[in-house]
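Journal club side-thread
Mid-discussion, someone asked how the predicted structure for our own chain would compare to the paper's figures. Pasting it here so we can look after the session.
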Amino acid sequence: MKKVNMKINIAGVELENPVMTASGTFGSGKEYGEYIDLSELGAVVVKGVASTPWKGNPSPRIAETYGGMLNSVGLQNPGIKEFIKEDIPFLKQYDTKIIVNIAGRTVEEYCEVVEALGDTDIDLLELNISCPNVKEGGVCFGTDPFMVEEVTKEVKKVAKQPLIVKLTPNVTDIVPIAKAAVKGGADALSLINTLLGMKIDIHRRKPVLANRMGGFSGPAIKPVAVRMVHQVAEAVDVPIIGMGGIMTGEDAIEFILAGATGVAVGTANFADPTATIKVIEGIENYLLEYGFENIEELRGNLLG
């Protein structure tokens, strides 16, 4: 059978294929190792890691919705010391790239995590700018272009690995946000993070989530995500990792045609722990069917 070249390059780091996991949906891969071979993934993007352990939000913090799910887990994590001790050695058993998602409530907290990872054997950093900035009254870092540029610039100063900035969709226009991240030094962008949503139990007349609102993800958000990836791809000249409702190889192809270099599978992992592998196979089958020899031939290749 004819093979196609599925390799991609993100800021100088070569991945065997464009499919990775979306942060927060795959842990550090331990839960999924019994279902799939992690070496088959282009990269594992781990759950957000902070400078100190975070307890996360009160329960209930997950709710199923039509076409997706809501979560208000709140970036619960054991902190960077535990992550370096336990998770990096686990992931190094596999022939895949490691991307660490960085969480923080202040610029200083982001920088602490990045500095701690400086001499570790990881491949890329992903800066989660959807966190609330406690020094600015809880405003999300990622909704203000000036703040996006500043936090990216400060983190980039101490980063030893290439820096991906993950963009929130909860803005009026994502293009100025993307441009600000690139101006601040982002080597790549990932988008979209979850949309802000809410579900109400009409019988109890109360919000379903203890935190009232949460991040909305799943198939229902895919058209919004594809649109934003397309807008950003036309506006900046750095690699883009597209995500938001990818369930199949066909979904992933949409993002690549929109201009994404790589794709991340998130909510689908909860429904099917082998989803990432099926997406890889789906992309490969599409390339073979339409006569593409290299996945790069497909990126941004929209007709009309």
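Post-session note: The mean pLDDT is 93.
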